[in-house]
Amino acid sequence: MLEEFVNDPFFGIFLTLFFYIIGLKLHKKWQFAIFTPLIFAIVCVIIFLLVFSIPLTAYDSGGQFISIWTIPATVCLAIKLENNFQYLKDLSLNIDTYCFDFSSLLTCII
User: What sign for the dihedral angle of Cα 103, 105, 106, 108?
Assistant: First the structure.
C-alpha cells in the first residue's frame, strides 16, 4: 500500500504541501525561524524520506512540479532583497551567524 502511494506522482506534491501547511500553522503560533514554512517543509521532507527509506526519485516524480515554481519565487526574493539592501547590510553579522548556526544544525541532523 505504501509503495503504491510513494510511486504516485502526487506523492511529492502532497508531502511538500502537507509539511508546508504544518509549518504555516506552527509559524503563526510560534515565531521561531525554524518554523518558517519553507525551511520547515524542506527539513521535514528530508527527514521523512530518510526515516522511511524512500528514494529521492520517487519523491522527485511529483516534486519536479513544485520546482517549476522555485524560479519565480527566487526572482521575487531577489527583488525584495535588493529593495532592502541597506537594512540587510546593517544586520549582516546577525544574518551570517544565523546561517552558520543553521547549517551546523543541519549538518548534525544529517
Answer: positive
Residue 70, H or E segment: helix 70-83
Question: Per the structure block, which three cell numbers stand in for 28?
Answer: 503563526
17, 22, 27, 30 alpha-carbon torsion, rounded to 10°: -170
Tell whether pTM > 0.85.
no
Three-state DSSP state, 52? coil
Quickly count: other Cβ atoms within 10 Å of residue 41's Cβ: 21
Using the Cα atoms of residue 104, residue 84, residue 34 and residue 71 in order, give the sign of their dihedral.
Answer: negative
- Torsion over CA of 63, 76, 82 and 29, rounded to 10 degrees? -80
Instruction: Provide the pLDDT for residue 47.
Output: 94
Q: How many whole angstroms separate alpha carbon 68 and alpha carbon 73?
A: 10
